[in-house]
Design brief:
single chain, ten-stranded mixed sheet, 24 strands
């Protein structure tokens, strides 16, 4: 068999060349016809062009938590006046937040600068319910790494009297609807500026090598926290959900998971955890099975949740390839009855924090880089269609697609082996 350069390269990338040689060696060792290698080879490892037929990319063990998260620089004007927020003007860019929320520090700064609040709104988060104040209409400015400001006019932000972890505020989906949002994760290994970069409205190429599309369904949650019927409501944008499969032992469950760049860890609802059989002693809780307990912060304050480990979390893509991480730490908490779980940013940023630390320490070898080079979100038509898309560019060395052995082909190989063996006995 002869191949041109491109074909040979694709053959080598796919792993088929190695499989063919291995199968041929095994066949020759048994004294069977070498042609049988052509039947056995495809039953080993498929990848590259074979990815279109489905399969999975196994990224190995998941990161337990993540500390690096996407942020934006923000500013606020009201009644034509710029209200000073510095130094509390770096907000978390959070796909899991439906509005724009000021933590206590930023709320106090803006109140002192003249921002007025006009109503009380009860919001709900991971730690339960909390009262927030709804602002007067204002213009909210935000910028990615290029520093070019974008703005939302006439918006009402929420002011909280609670701190929100280490961030002075949260910029949720209102900042991302109707546009593309891109995270360059590889910049975390940039010694000159070690941080992921955020870009808004960056063009998305129609075809990119090593890229996989994940369909997103946008869900709008009703605003039920109004105190009086005539009270103005805060901003409320739909949230993105992705289909996810989780496995513990032989038990597999599918669910619709909130895609949450503001979550440092993946989460399962209690119903999903029970369905997976994680309550092994059957006492109705997960405390005895927990490997640790984690304090989570958000709207409603802080709460402590049990953390367990599941065998596998799979993220299906539009091409039929599942992106898989194993030994995944999951917190167990109920956020809303409609939420089966949360796909946290630790899944998306896998590997980069350890790689960056190793680089800064000058370790040799550095170890593998992060699993994904960049993430592009396409929310341009999300308001009209109720659909979005997440595009994951896999680091090339991890883009090895394992295709399951086709049952029919396996049967053919077994029959051929048996037939040839019988012929040998007759000789």
């Amino acid at each position: 068999m002869t191949m041109d350069g491109d074909t040979a390269s694709a053959w080598e990338r796919s792993g088929m060349a190695t499989a063919a040689m291995t199968a041929q060696r095994h066949v020759l060792a048994r004294g069977l016809p070498p042609m049988l290698a052509l039947v056995l080879a495809p039953l080993a490892v498929w990848g590259g062009a074979a990815a279109a037929a489905g399969g999975s990319i196994d990224l190995g063990a998941a990161d337990e938590v993540v500390f690096a998260q996407p942020t934006v620089q923000v500013g606020v004007t009201a009644r034509g006046r710029l209200l000073d927020l510095e130094p509390n003007n770096e907000f978390l860019l959070d796909t899991g937040a439906s509005g724009i929320l000021l933590a206590k520090t930023a709320s106090d700064d803006l109140t002192a600068a003249g921002l007025q609040t006009v109503a009380t709104y009860t919001d709900f988060g991971v730690a339960g319910a909390a009262e927030t104040r709804v602002s007067e209409p204002c213009t909210f400015f935000f910028a990615g790494a290029d520093g070019v400001p974008l703005s939302l006019s006439g918006v009402r932000v929420q002011a909280s009297q609670q701190e929100l972890g280490t961030y002075p505020g949260i910029g949720g989906m209102p900042l991302m609807m109707g546009r593309t949002v891109s995270f360059d994760l590889s910049q975390q290994a940039n010694l000159n500026a070690p941080a992921m970069t955020v870009a808004f409205n960056a063009p998305i190429a129609s075809s990119v090598t090593h890229r996989y599309a994940v369909p997103l369904t946008m869900v709008t949650f009703p605003q039920t926290g109004q105190q009086n019927p005539t009270d103005p409501l805060p901003e409320n944008a739909p949230l993105p959900f992705a289909a996810v499969s989780v496995r513990s032992g032989a038990v597999v469950q599918q669910g619709s998971f909130l895609l949450d760049t503001g979550a440092q860890q993946c989460i399962l609802s209690s119903s999903m955890a029970f369905a997976l059989g994680l309550d092994r002693d059957g006492n109705g809780t997960f405390d005895n099975e927990a490997t640790s307990f984690q304090t989570v912060s958000g709207v409603g304050g802080q709460t402590q949740i049990p953390v367990l480990t599941i065998d596998q979390l799979s993220l299906p893509t539009a091409s039929g390839v599942d992106i898989v991480q194993r030994d995944v730490s999951v917190g167990i908490i109920d956020i809303d009855p409609s939420i089966s779980g949360v796909l946290g940013f630790n899944f998306l940023n896998k590997g980069w924090e350890v790689f960056a630390v190793n680089m800064f320490l000058g370790l040799d070898p550095l170890g593998p880089p992060g699993a994904f080079q960049r993430i592009d979100f396409d929310f341009r038509a999300a308001a009209a269609t109720g659909q979005g898309e997440m595009l994951l560019t896999v680091t090339p060395q991890f883009d090895v697609v394992i295709v399951p052995e086709p049952a029919g082909a396996a049967g053919v190989a077994i029959v051929l082996v048996a037939t040839l063996a019988r012929r040998r006995r007759r000789r």
